[in-house]
Design brief:
alpha+beta, Inorganic Pyrophosphatase, five-stranded mixed β-barrel, four-stranded antiparallel sheet, 27% strand, globular, disordered C terminus, hydrolase, Pyrophosphatase, Pyrophosphatase_sf
Length: 338
């Protein structure tokens, strides 16, 4: 029987954690940047700004189908009505200044390689496979690991700052260093601290190092230097873990750009903003035609999306495999959108 556990993304957070950093990416604002109390919504540049009174505060349930560690196991997200939604496309990215939603795929101290299935309807979390067999890391991962929703590493974009590497066609990864072991599918409010530019078989695979806002050390850690002070050796351990984890399978170690060093918080925010912009282009089909053919070909029985290349009317939100991006049931706005 499918097990359901309820999670609530709380709306009230420590104000000091939301407003410490002065860094704002005003040139490329995040398209779905919500506000908490007394904070303003940053809408796309083509729209005027509003004072947003409404708060994103859904109750998202996680519904497990199948048994863990089997090929059929899936972790779906459903809204209050029981309707399936996408953890990648329907959970908003930003909650306030420099505060983001992080979706847990792999809890710390575990070895099953779980990931959002970007090629399946509603993008559930599943265990990765290779040649029909479930994949495991050769040893436990020591931090909570997952993704930032509404981000995408564009495989058609060569990053001139990271050896011209192209994106890996996935959401941006997060390594959360807090003390709590999270659960698969948990949505956690985090603040970015650093970024590692991993190059995996020639593809750029960003790792955003972050910490949960409810961690006891969160108020002391705000940038890359603070990580070294309060979590000594952690950044090196993260880099070494991701560099070496494929070696037992006979593959070469992964490489890292940016001088093999972690970038600071401002750079991490820049990466998040750029990959959110790429995600917006993805769901609006504003990407090269040949790339669309590679991506938008997943069969679905949903009548809304039988023609996977149909661009929805301007009055509708973009869609992905039958999923309504920015599901209206998950958003509570009060005159926040023109």
């Amino acid at each position: 029987m499918a097990a359901i556990r309820a999670m609530t993304i709380a709306s009230n957070s420590t104000c000091s954690l939301l407003t410490k950093s002065p860094f704002l990416l005003r040139q490329k604002p995040l398209a779905y940047s919500l506000c908490l109390k007394n904070l303003k919504l940053r809408c796309p540049s083509s729209r005027r700004s509003y004072t947003c009174r409404a708060i994103y505060n859904p109750e998202v349930q996680v519904k497990e189908e199948g048994q863990p560690e089997t090929l059929d196991y899936r972790v779906f997200f459903v809204d209050k009505s029981g309707k399936k939604v996408s953890p990648w496309h329907d959970v908003p990215l930003q909650l306030g200044t420099d505060v983001f939603n992080f979706i847990v795929e792999i809890p710390k101290e575990s070895d099953a390689k779980m990931e959002v299935a970007t090629d399946e309807p509603f993008t559930p979390i599943k265990q990765d496979t290779k040649k029909g067999k479930l994949r495991y890391y050769p040893y436990n991962i020591n931090w909570n690991y997952g993704l930032l929703p509404q981000t995408w590493e564009d495989p058609s974009h060569a990053n001139s700052e990271v050896e011209g590497a192209f994106g890996d066609n996935d959401p941006v990864d997060v390594v959360e260093i807090g003390e709590t072991r999270r659960k698969i599918g948990e949505v956690v409010k985090v603040k970015p601290l650093a970024a590692l530019a991993m190059i995996d078989e020639g593809e750029l695979d960003w790792k955003i190092v972050a910490i949960s806002l409810d961690d006891p050390k969160a108020s002391f850690v705000n940038d890359v230097d603070d990580v070294e002070k309060h979590f000594p050796g952690t950044l090196t351990a993260i880099r070494d873990w991701f560099r070496d984890y494929k070696i037992p399978d006979g593959k070469p170690p992964n490489k890292f750009g940016l001088g093999n060093k972690p970038a600071n918080k401002d750079y991490a925010l820049k990466v998040i903003a750029e990959t959110n912009e790429s995600w917006n282009k993805l769901v609006k089909r504003s990407i090269p035609a040949e790339l669309q053919q590679q991506i938008f070909t997943v069969p679905t029985t949903d009548s809304r999306c039988r023609d996977s290349h149909t661009i929805p009317p301007a009055t509708q939100v973009s869609r992905w495999n039958g999923v309504e991006v920015t599901n209206p049931e998950l958003w509570k706005f009060s005159d926040c959108i023109d």
